[in-house]
């Protein structure tokens, strides 16, 4: 079953349930959470954030890989995109750099969704990453090791962390400093203006932290 088949499965199943049923019926909640291909979808968390009512057009947001998204003219709810794309296991077609770019495309066009997604651009080259939020958004169990250690996704894809001194000009608040990390790509292959071809060159690049 491919990505769009999973979207169809999730769409059909969501149609069967109402929010009240999901919250008040343990049996239906269990059936939903254990349904094949969407078992990692935490419906309670995302309903709290109203992501079931947020509609996005991946094509208009220039999601990558374009080979998957440009043929789809559908407007999808955010919870469907989360469950079937951002929570999908990494593969040749769904890679970390794809997930990062698409998440940034959402917050670039809808800044208020940073509280759900956890990444955004603060300049053309610097990314703000809320550690806990972005880790949960990707359904990671060990967030620090998966994203930030020397073998984590950011360093291994060529990202380097910005120093506190470099961040002074951005007038960040205390919570940003305590809860977020800030990255730029060492070869500037991943910027707000990057093409898909440039982004594809970020795949598993050796990096020092």
Salient structural properties:
single chain; alpha+beta; Arc Repressor Mutant, subunit A; about 45% helix; 6 strands; globular; about 210 residues
Descriptive account of the structure:
By secondary structure, the protein is of the alpha+beta class. The chain has one domain (53-201): Winged helix-like DNA-binding domain superfamily/Winged helix DNA-binding domain (Arc Repressor Mutant, subunit A). The chain contains 14 helices and six strands. The strands form two sheets. A four-stranded antiparallel beta sheet has the order 3-4-6-5. A hairpin with a 5-residue loop joins strand 3 (119-121) and strand 4. Helix 1 (3-16) packs across helix 6. It is globular, with a radius of gyration of 17 Å. The model is unreliable at 6-49 (pLDDT under 50). Residues 72-181 form the Initiator binding domain. It holds the Pfam family IBD. This is Initiator binding domain-containing protein. It comes from Tritrichomonas foetus.
């Amino acid at each position: 079953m491919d990505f769009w088949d999973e979207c169809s499965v999730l769409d059909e199943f969501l149609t069967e349930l109402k929010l009240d049923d999901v919250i008040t019926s343990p049996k239906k909640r269990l059936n939903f959470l254990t349904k094949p291909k969407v078992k990692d979808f935490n419906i309670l968390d995302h309903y709290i954030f109203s992501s079931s009512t947020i509609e996005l057009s991946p094509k208009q947001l220039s999601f990558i890989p374009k080979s998957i998204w440009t043929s789809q003219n559908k407007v999808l709810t955010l919870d469907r995109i989360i469950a079937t794309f951002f929570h999908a296991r990494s593969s040749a077609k769904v890679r970390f750099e794809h997930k990062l770019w698409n998440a940034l495309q959402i917050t670039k066009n809808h800044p208020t969704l940073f509280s759900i997604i956890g990444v955004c651009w603060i300049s053309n080259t610097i990314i703000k990453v809320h550690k806990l939020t972005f880790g949960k958004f990707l359904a990671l169990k060990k967030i620090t090791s998966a994203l930030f250690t020397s073998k984590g996704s950011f360093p291994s894809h060529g990202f380097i962390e910005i120093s506190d001194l470099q961040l002074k000009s951005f007038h960040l608040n205390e919570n940003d400093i305590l809860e977020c990390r800030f990255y730029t790509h060492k070869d500037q292959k991943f910027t707000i203006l990057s093409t898909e071809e440039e982004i594809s060159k970020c795949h598993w690049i050796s990096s020092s932290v």
